[in-house]
Amino acid sequence: MVKPxxxxxxxxxxxxxxxxxxxxxxxxxxLSFFSDNGVFSKDKIDFGSNLLVTEIMKxxxxxxxxxxxxxxxxxxxxxxxxxxxxxxxxxxDVNERAVHLCKKNIALNEVSANAFISDIYENIKDKYNLxxxxxxxxxxxxxxxxxxxxxxxHLSDDGSLWFVIKKDQGAKSILKLLENDYNCQIVNKSKxxxxxxxxxx
Length: 201
Description:
201 residues, alpha/beta, Rossmann fold, 7-stranded mixed sheet, two-stranded antiparallel ribbon, 5 helices, 9 strands
């Protein structure tokens, strides 16, 4: 029997642990993160995630009071923005190892944040000024759309969803499928990545 390929968006605690540290420089921020096997972009900060965080920092004038990072991995995006805006953040992932790393990284970087298990929005009860995600494209379009479409149920009245997606991974078709739910704006394009801001209609 062939063992199925394990992905970072699945939950397999049997993957051998090899803890490592990844350093990040975003503007004036200098942060470090514990990473491990079985999580997204384990050896370096992902370009798309970095781009998304940078664009949020540049374009949001009024600091959010709370942030939700969906599919957070080891917590790079949510922790950076919690630090930058000095606000509360919730970081969620279906991957237990990712959430464990998040908790370590929240303590390491001294931010006001919580990390907990949630299959997308399954365990989310609150509403947020800012929801962000770098959705797991390899999980399939149906899953990606769930990340994006269901965010609207957890946005405050003045809230916005920010996400990053590559042009060759269906950015334009995804935008078309979101137009009934959100007013979408392409904030930036870089190296094939689109950073998109979406607000409830």
